Fold each of these.
Amino acid sequence: MLVKNNVFRFIIASTLTTALSFSPLATAETTLANASVVVQNSFVVAQTTPLSFGTIVAFAENNSSVTSDTASLLVNSDGVTADTITNGTLSKIIPVVAATVATFTVSGAAPNTLLTITLPAAFDLTDPSLTDSKDFRVSTFTTSIVTSGSPFTYDTDGGGNMVFNMGATLTTDATLAVAVGAVAYSNVTFTNTYTMTVNY
Amino acid sequence: MRVLSTTALIVFFSFISWPAPVLAATITQQQALSFGTIALRDNSSAHQMNIAFDGTITADPAFIIISAGSPAEFLLSGFTANTLVNVSILVPSTTSVLAGAVDPSTSQFTIDNHHTFAPVLTTNLLGEATVNVGARLTTSGVGFYKDAMYIAPMTISVNY
């Protein structure tokens, strides 16, 4: 009887121990983490070839009563079509060295994404040395796509790149006020800067 | 003699029913919750992007997705096999901050609506389970965003 009681107690103890070892415990495991986002609004627009109207011989009409008499040199943005020169009565442009279109390369932009190009406003080319007070007007900008994600479309390729050209028209000075007829431009370089804007 | 053999049987039973040593339960991040790399066309009003727990991405047109994001993936391991566990996500702050920098001039995002497939999961035979976490990103609708990484913390808690 004594032996039986001991066995019974052992069974009770063993069962209790076993039950305790399986009882669910309210336990929690945690770990810290971050959610993130990377903003990359900016991308690179680089001028790989500057807009140049080449080397020319130019005459401006120096008669205030005939201000519409100008000569112009149109540089086509496709980079293939020959430059178009339109001379006035006295105003002349004679090409010596051919013009080149501007070329811009976009990189680091979102892939396969349409971009918007904002052309610059008309501006003047002037002589930084002030040897010649006359200027040229640059206006009527046009663009042509060179490489992009889709033909004839201003969208980036799979790598976020795009290349496009910009052409423009150079016009001789129409603001001269001394009536002496045609006047030649000095042999200097006329320059200016402009801003090309490309947006998503 | 008969009593002794009964006792031996009970002792043996007791040992085999004793639970095996429990491995340390751990939560391991396999993949971070990321909204990817984006550009914003405009921030004049608030815009949203959602990444669901299953990886589905929906975004307002104002977002330009440069590289797509992904939901977080956590591996639960060392848990008891075939056991229900409760998963909760604690978010101390839904407002993002610049990673590794302080710049009050930039706008911040709101990251909220953290979610999983279900709050209760069952571990497998190995005592493991996978938890995917998605969330929602909302722009400020005012100001601008500097090019940078923005982060917001969260804590994954598993109760069992």
Amino acid sequence: MSYGYTGKILHVNLTTSEITVEEPEEQFYRTYMGGSAMGMHYVLKETPVGVEPLSPENVLALCTGVVTGTPISGQSRLTSVAKSPLTGCIGDAQGGGYFPAEMKFSGFDAVIIKGKSPKPVYLWMHHGEAELRDAGHLWGLTTGDAEDKLKEELEDKRIEVLQIGPAGENLVRFAALISMSNRANGRTGMGAVMGSKNLKAVVVRGKQKPTIADPERFKELQKLGKTNLEPTGMDSFGKYGTPEVTSPQNKSGGLPTYNFNSGTFDKHEEINGITLYNEHLRGHERDEQNRFGRDTCFSCSIKCKRVSQIDEGPYKTEAKYGGPEYETLATFGSYCGISNMDAIIHANALCNMYGMDTISCGATISWAMECWAEGKLTSEDTGGIELKYGSAEAMVKMTEMIAKREGFGKILAEGSQKASEIIGRGTEDYLITSKGQEAPAHMPQVKRSLSVIYAANPFGADHESSEHDPAYKAYPERMEQIGLTNPQEKLALNEEMMRFAMVTQHLSSAVDSLSVCAFIFGASFQLYDADKLVEVVNAVTGWDTDMTEILAVGERRLNMLRAFNSREGIGRESDTLPKKMFKRPLEGGRSDGYSLDEKEWEAALEDYYRLCDWDVKTGHPSLKKMDSLGLGWVVAENEALSQVVT
Amino acid sequence: MKINIELMGSLVDYLPDSERGQSVLILKDESTIADLLSHLKIKRRVIVAVNGDEEKGLEYVLSEGDEVLVFTVISGG
């Protein structure tokens, strides 16, 4: 009997409409545990080398993990993997809400999608069955409207929907997958991949609750979630959500401002978590934000999600499209020099309505604003829109034009790196991308281990792939659980900080494979520490796993992502940072004058490769490493990979 | 003695709303960082910087006019 997981993987070929069910052995689940690692197993097996990301041959995997759907905080997450149309590398994005748990209840752990339907369809997975249904009437609808129609059509208000919006249909390269009309598998353009397949939505419903191997121990772990709330500060994280970090980031000189040219925004208080909570969450007029302005994921006690509503004016916004996270407040706010909270709330809602990643969207606009400020773009390019820093009106207008691929929005819909290739004129100097993915709102000049993670991460610049520098010193007893006992001075970029980066990356990678929440399980501020993550897995599955095995799952997944890039011919030459991080010192605030030293950074990157057992010259994983992780088959089954992995 | 305190992020809730996280506190002479946190009823894990220095331990004795910044480490988004 399987505990935690259903034991069923759904395979859907949209070209032929063939649907099959695979029932892997327990060892398969123990090896990958779900999420990104499980998805990569199929992507590596079934995607041809050199596949065009928006072609039918690209394989899209949507995977839960072995603890998804059990009643404990932080387990309802789903990971999507496929080759990314934004970066040309592997793509990977996580999202939460109620969809992941409901997908498990529908009787399936994962769905692997290939091919392209001749006409728009949606996949209806319910009570252990699955079918493709016509979605012609849904194509072109916003996420909110499509979800309403599906609930009506299926006569069930409790269905959960993971879908693309018009941006995914229009193949915007940073289109997202959206559930609940406000939760996003945001990064790397997974929405464009789904759009290219004419798949509008995956709809799930079921009652198959996962069985728990050790209910007594599980209950104790559930209770710990409550008693840990105050000591970890996760109670106030719930109250203010991720936006609580906005002003602390600013204070440390790490709030990206004016397209990463400064780490300090003089109007940070207008866009921080306190202001959002006090003045912009639904119900704030009656001091009832906790009831009406916060939302949560399946079985999670934190309630960190924001809900805003604007009843009138140019930024009128419906509550069903949620509210902005810290990343969104930064990318549409400080990146663009904008402090108009209503405009940011509205831009966030547009991204959720049309289905786009708020990080890449806001950062692509901030790149265009810097190009405008430098005279590289004019109103001739933009169709008369003045893309000035600080212009909330231009930012909101451009967000909508990107989703619809209208006017200049058609170029920005390619993402900033491809847009700079189209425009030329030296606009590449202002990019803030790694592997073509726009940098999230944490600054490598200030938290320096991130400089190597942003560059070397197989799916581009990412802030959730490792712990950030200050955590090493701040959480010594939690770091010790994963063997990190030697915290370094602030701004250090040495071998020990690379070990910190790599080991915490392995843990984060395990978190993304188990497909659990990075705010609930981890090695620093989270509700549960890394040891408790191991205990939750054991209590649910009945396994006897330990920290070594969990970290190996994370390392396995990281090497699978890396190997995907290697077989595409992508190695060390793609592990780069934006030029400006080396050449342009930050201006103002506590990080005034900060930049990265190229030689010191290259040395750190090589330390990181050595620690990972990746070839320093090529950046490819070694055969020895692949073998030791049980990934010899990945090399053996792929000629292109066997030529570069030695 | 008087010290200047600034509480960042969600820690603003440990001071009255009107102070928006910034205040001048009067503490007994020779109060330590631990005494200060206890005075504010802060039980959660925080980082304390005294005059910009984050390396002082909980037993560090504060002085008149110290600038104390209290913040948390949350790295998500």
Amino acid sequence: MMFNGILSGDLPRSRVLGVVLIAIVLGLLLTPFLLPGAKALNVAAKICIFIVLVASFDLLLGYTGIVSFAHTMFFGIGAYGVAIALNDLGPTWWAVAVGLSGALALSLVLSLVIGLFSLRVKAIFYAMITLAVATAFQTLASQLSDFTGGEDGLSFKIPELLSPAFSLREQPFLGVALDGRLISYYLLAAVTVALFLLMLRIVNSPFGRVLQAIRENPFRAEALGYRTVVYRTASNVLSAGFATLAGALLALWLRYNGPDTSLSFEIMINILLMVVIGGMGTMYGAVVGTTLFIIAENYLQDLLKLASGAVSGVPVLRDLVHPDRWLLWLGLLFVLSVYKFPTGIVGKLRARVRGAA
Amino acid sequence: MSSSTTTVPASGALPTVKLDRLPMLLLPVLALAALPLVGSVSSWVTLTFAGLAMGMIIFIMASGLTLVFGLMDVLNFGHGVFITLGAFLAVTVLGRAAGWTESEHLLLNLAAVVPAMLLAMAVTGALGLVFERVIIRPVYGQPLKQIMITMGGMIVGQELIKAIWGPQALPLPLPASFRGSLLMGEAAVEKYRLIAVALGLGIFAVLFWVLARTKVGLLIRAGVQDREMVESLGYRIRRLFVGVFAAGSALAGLGGVMWGLYQQTVTPEIGAEVNVLLFIVIIIGGLGSVGGCFIGALLLGLVANYVGFLAPKVALFSDILLMVLVLSWRPQGLYPVVKR
């Protein structure tokens, strides 16, 4: 079957999940036509970018069983690479290529060094080391203000084809102006699909099986003759590379990059939540988790605003459902999902199928 | 490794462990090496006291973390919440007692600060019990889940703190008689730093006494080295662990009060930010070692202050640099905890 080939033989294996995935893909593709306005398009673009980022984190956390807190560092490297190159060399495709390859090279070297130095030790050790390194990197980025724009970040122009001023055709198509923004969005969506399918290919390859074996039982994997350090480091490097690409996409879409948009620890927490809520070690979990989380981030606040209006007389409850406290509710969902359904939404849906069969 | 440190003496005396003095020498060596670099004696004295004060406060916050890890292999990424909570409780208590803290009278100041510290310790200690029961107990022995669940606990805790106190930074001014500096010859040393050093030394002494001279301490140390052996002798190590966890949380709360007073402003992120420093300190010290944690914290404080004076740009990475240097000398930390 054609689908089987495209999805590397890793089908959703649950009818509900299949429907949800198709709905998400269609929704993302049709957003410019169904939901006019800048906010909806921005939300859709953010979902695309984070699907790549979260899936790359899943490669590391869900498939290899490594907890890293330096994932946003690589995301930031990608974003800064493109931002700095476009800022210094002007808005050309050449500059994008230079920035992207520089960022990829830096990410690969960094992830290789961190991996070789600290993946030999316990998971907890690695988590702590990456946390420290990521914090240092964030400080570095905000201190080197001549280079990175410091706390203010960098605003830059992007190649003409992608800029909002560019127009493909005078007449709008189905009521939507065919401008550079629309082209950017579809380019972004296409790259997202390609990268996601590539990652799906990787985790379903023999290499991916070894990663899962290491996750399940590192001693046994080592005993079977696989050098776990090599495989773990390779997984670390790969996931860093994909995160860098996601960062580059973010910078191109926003035409801006600063420490808060790509490097902050908050984003690290968010992607951890997305992976776990969606379902670790499933790849599709990244799609479901990301979509749910980003929609919640953008629209749960509106819902909470309604709720807090309804209970504005009750002192404690009023503060708990304050619109700014949306992360509280997602945090609770996160804790619950680690306990109650560690395989996340996707795992839950698949288990239901298995139970029925 | 120190597996051969136990010597069997010829006489009938009990075998003793040779004291490893090398890491202890690091502190005076570092301080003396910094003296010619800094140049003037008076600024050196100021910097040294600043470093010691910072190190002491960090030690108070980190000691619980390292013991909890040593005893049960639990690394609490949510430790920062207790620190934040302690600091915010201090804001509330000292804010209520503004009349006493603004008074020039030392006793009135103490009457405000001491209850604030005690309350912070009581609340964070009690919360530590709940945290252990609800968050950590279900995931013993599963490091991956532990990391995530304690992280989740921190997110929820931090959001709850924001819900109660609001997301903005709050001022936490020092009580009147703690402000200003004492002149020691040419050098000016802030009073609060002296207090922090004294309190830190006091707490280290108490901890050291408990661990080295009491039965509970003996069991804790034995548990860190070999949990199953202690259990097979009939001691409930879980119960011991709960106690250590609560005590560690209470110390984090106390450290939070002191750190908040040191910074003089309190934000809901204060604990999460300092958590990174704590991890570095307990890695430097050797996971599970209280003595190592003490030396590591003081080293970090001193290095941060010396480097901050000599090369402010480098100071941002001095912690990581220190960690890399220490780990390349002793990969398991200053005092590796021998585990069976």
